[in-house]
Amino acid sequence: MLVQIIRVFLALAFFSAGTLKIVPSDLVPHAEEMRKEFVTFATKSLPFGIEVNPDVYRLVVGITEFLSSVVLLFGSPSARRIVNAVLIIVMIGAVYTHIALQQPIASTVPAIVLGLLLILHYWLSKPEKSKEQ
């Protein structure tokens, strides 16, 4: 039961976060602020001086989060484990970005909490070994 509760919470969180990143900014009040943040994320936080188009970066992250939320809710157990691992990587990147930009710890906490919940969900949803082996 706990794993289902965590899965639904994660799906709702990533559905919301992904939607904010991909919908037009005039439809959602906080979307414009997020777009401005992604300009900073894309130009100042990537390692080795890599720069990417902020809109492409935002859309890739947003579509990944949005589609992953759908798979978390409706996908097979193996598909859920795969997107869970993908989202763990996304959250590691989010934590790195906030630290690299020396942002206040409060801006990093959501990514840390979601990352820890993803790790817990991944661990709790391990396939059980067959007793016939």
Protein described:
The chain is mainly alpha-helical and 133 residues long. The protein has one domain. It has helices at residues 2-22, 31-44, 54-74, 77-100, 105-124. The two termini are 27 Å apart.
Give a concise summary.
The chain has 133 residues and is an all-alpha fold. It is built from 5 helices and no strands.
Principal-axis shape equals globular
- Looking at the chains present, what oligomeric state does this protein adopt? single chain
Number of helices: 5
Number of strands: 0
Cα gyration radius (Å)? 16 Å
State the distance separating the first and last CA atoms: 27 Å
Helix content: over 70%
Largest sheet, described in full?
A: none
Uncertain runs are: none
**Beta-strand content estimate:** under 5%
| Mean pLDDT over the full residue set | 88
From N to C, what is the helix and strand string?
A: HHHHH
Helices and strands: which structural class?
mainly alpha
For the record, the count of structural domains works out to 1
Protein traits:
75% helix
